[in-house]
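Each record in this resource describes a single protein on a pair of labelled lines. The shape at a given residue is found from the number at the same position. The record below illustrates this layout:

***
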Amino acid sequence: MVPVSFPSDSGAPLDFAGEELVLLGSNALYWPRERALLVADLHLEKGSWYAKHGQMLPPYDSRETLERVADAVKACDARRVITLGDNFHDGAGTSRLDPYAAGMLEALTRSLDWVWITGNHDEEMGRAFGATIVPELEVNSIILRHEAQAGETRPELSGHYHPKMRVQVRGRHIARACGVVSRSARAARADRMIMPAFGAYTGGMDAAAPEILRALSPADRIDAVLSAKGRLVQFPLYRAA
């Protein structure tokens, strides 16, 4: 296992399937051994998709999301970026990027080993921007895909569900994007994780929603995880009887 150099992005260590990962405060995941930044559910051009359907939102979500990716890459000194699907809000979103955002994306893909994993929103991406497009990927025996597959017994990183943890602190209700990690005592190092959504215009599903727990089954324990001031905070969601 390689030593982890913590980025300046409030990174918290996460032991996952024998690998030391870093969950960043920006909702990305850094993999030091691979020098790879993983992000899920960018949903680029979601604002322009809503505008096409009559609901006007500020049209700068893609710029904001790409700026946050660039900031995370710089903080980690990453050399690879791997996305976990729903990169664009729809397959035609690649053609709606304004020239400034398109230039930002092309600069990132030129300087990095960039891999798009496709999701249900962008199974047919119209343009790769110089990067590689794949339906899923295996890196060091860990499966990277968009949607968790119930019953999977191999280590798996995925997105799709946009999990959020809702807690009450001093009388205030707080909702924050989080990851959800499942672990099994029956299968060594078969950890699985649903990553938080990274995009500027992404809502969220309760981390304890039945759909999320089913997607990560079978498991002996499932926890919501988030980074807080450099520490990994965990909230139990499920324990096997």
